[in-house]
Amino acid sequence: MFASLSERLTKTLRDLRGLSTLSESNLEPALVEVRAALMAADVHFKVARDFTDRVKVACLGKDVIESVSPAQMAVKVIQEELTRLLGEGARNLSPTRPLRILLVGLHGSGKTTSAAKLGRYLRTKEGLQKPYLIGADIYRPAAIDQLEILAKQEGLGFYSDRTSKDAAELTRTCLAEALGAGADCVIVDTAGRLQADEDLMAEVRRIREVFQPHEVFLVADAALGQQAVDVATKFHAATPLTGIILTKLDGDARGGATLSMREVTGVPVRFMGTGEKLTDFEVFHPERMAGRILGMGDVVSLVERAQATVDQKEAERLAEKMRKADFDLDDFLSQLRQMKQMGPLGDVLKMMPGMGSVQVGAREESMLGKTEAILLSMTPRERRKPDLLNASRRARIARGSGSQVADVNGMLKQFGQMREMMRMMKGGKSKELMRRMGQMGGGGGFRPPGGGRFGR
Could you tell me which of 111, 303, 121, 143 has the C-alpha nearest to residue 216? Predict the structure, then answer.
């Protein structure tokens, strides 16, 4: 997601940083490239034009000209404008309880899954005790079945009526039942269409009248493209939106729809779905997403993800063993598993400053699984004492893990380098350590656990 836009904007920022002064003539080529990058990412042409116009005015203003580093200020202006475009100042959820949330959107946008994800988020992160889901898609029994399964899976309440022919009456009845059961939050999953037609808008209006929601979220597929503006505008007219849930951010969509919807409707993106699992659901932070798009990383989100997924005691144990240079293959396996718990490696790298352009595909992701398989094909004694791994043992491990002996050798070589670096850190040999790290990098790539390199 945003990969192409991020790559082009990051290059433009690098070029800007090389300027010693700013003028309309040397700024214009960069702004042309920014505008082209936005439009190539499916941003509406008017949104892209207005964005670059605002950047130009801000960059050539008096405050910028008097700044110590005009080029750095230009980069700062672009980051601030991109943050504003993504939805600066997005508010918290309504404090009213029981909280009523209405989800609307096109067919296939991910409403049903998002309803379960949102319910889970509210229970685990916002402290609500009894979120209930209402299935109001009277045209697709399978959608009601899916919502019920997801609700049971996450311990959420669920109501629907598979015999009902009126979505608004169904919502009214189920709402009364949910409130009678003590619900402190009710989320309604509505039907969708392939297009935002008048019948759909009329049904949404009727549901809104009986439900009286505190929040109305448009669930939008990140791959919607130029159609996004029309869809968001029509839903916003039918039932004023309070936020957008952007789904399928783990895909390779160009993503400009996000910027267009926010700019045209004034409705902020509030949440985002980042994967297929119900846990792949996050609050949308405009400033953090702007940092990711511009290749500046998102350290805050990285730390939050680590805190949520990494076993703190195990991390402290590993850190102590690394400090003492007492690190074996069992520790290496534990480190690898903690890394995998944080999510796809590509997502993690994009949160690290300067690593946004590192390309991580299926091959690189599979290397982590291969490394884990190699380690699990060893006996506990072999992992504790890697020096036991002679040629015959390595051949057995390769067969057991479905890999080649060269893969086993490569993993052990990298492990040996890691352990040697730990010993140097313990011994205070900083210059030698820096030299060795340079040799391991061998050309600027990023080397994952288990060998190989991700090139820029």
Answer: 111
